[in-house]
Design goal:
This protein is of the alpha+beta class. The chain has 2 domains: 8-139, no CATH class; 145-251, Homeodomain-like (Arc Repressor Mutant, subunit A, Orthogonal Bundle). Helices cover 45% and strands 16% of the residues. A 6-stranded antiparallel β-sheet has the order 1-2-7-4-5-8. A two-stranded antiparallel ribbon has the order 3-6. α2 (109-119) packs antiparallel against α3, α4 (145-159) crosses α6 and α8 (216-222) crosses α9 (228-239). The two termini are 35 Å apart.
């Protein structure tokens, strides 16, 4: 396993590598200091999160994730590969999109016990990750080819910046658009169009951070938006500011 700061990330080993992208943890100590708002633009993944009073199973979050950080705390988490939580779940992953379920609701009494066991590890990150690994290994379902297919298609969307329409993705993977949409709603939790837009907005953020002077109409076209206004609306809807405003903030 390996990690990097500020969030410590650990790669799964053995059979869990097929379904888990990473284990992670983050801690903070703001005692006597101003509170801080943490904000992320989530990926199309399901997460298992363990934190005192806030543990849960989180479906794909279609908006921004914001969290007020104060005092002292630590969070442990599991990020599943897109599409790969479905074999653990009794129904379509879309049923938990934009929801956070208590661990007891998601996994029964042993889910409720998991929070206490992990939190008792304190800052012993290795012990906490080992508990999470054991918890998932005990529940590891048989291999599901459709879960791996969903994972591969999402990865293809991420890797190929030219795939800017769901129809093009369907052709790329040899599926009808309707079949692709069913696969995504069942296994990923959102439709392929949403995944395409989310990754392209990630790309827009990265480009604007590197070069705040980028030509916005050209950027919109490169990302597959039919006009700049559509791009601005999508960017603002998700990030709460326009691309131009984001670029100015990046300059600072």
């Amino acid at each position: 396993m390996r990690h990097q700061s500020p969030v410590e990330r650990f790669l799964p080993e053995g059979p869990l590598a097929a379904v888990v992208e990473r284990f992670w943890t983050i801690s903070w100590d703001l005692r006597g200091k101003p509170t801080r708002t943490g904000e992320t633009l989530p990926h199309p993944s399901v997460y298992l999160v363990v934190e005192a009073g806030r543990s849960g199973l989180a479906g794909v979050n279609t908006g921004r994730f914001q969290r007020l950080l104060e005092g002292k705390g630590r969070v442990y988490g599991v990020k599943f590969h897109p599409g790969c939580f479905r074999p653990f779940w009794p129904g379509p992953v879309r049923t938990i999109t934009d929801r956070i379920l208590p661990l007891e609701s998601a996994f029964g009494p042993e889910g409720a016990e998991l929070e206490g066991a992990v939190l008792r590890c304190g800052d012993d990150v290795g012990a906490a990750v080992a508990l999470l690994e054991a918890f998932l290994l005990k529940r590891l379902p048989p291999p599901d080819p459709r879960a791996q297919l969903a994972r591969q298609v999402v990865a293809r969307i991420l890797e190929d910046r030219n795939l800017i329409q769901a129809e093009a993705v369907a052709r790329e993977v040899g599926m009808s658009l309707r079949s692709l949409q069913r696969l995504f709603l069942d296994y990923v939790g959102v439709n392929p169009k949403w995944v395409i837009e989310r990754y392209r907005l990630h790309e827009a953020m990265e480009r604007l951070e590197k070069d705040p002077s980028l030509d916005l109409p050209g950027l919109a076209l490169a990302l597959g938006y039919y006009d700049q206004a559509h791009f601005i609306r999508a960017f603002k809807r998700l990030l709460g500011r326009t691309p131009g405003g984001y670029a100015k903030a990046s300059e600072g």
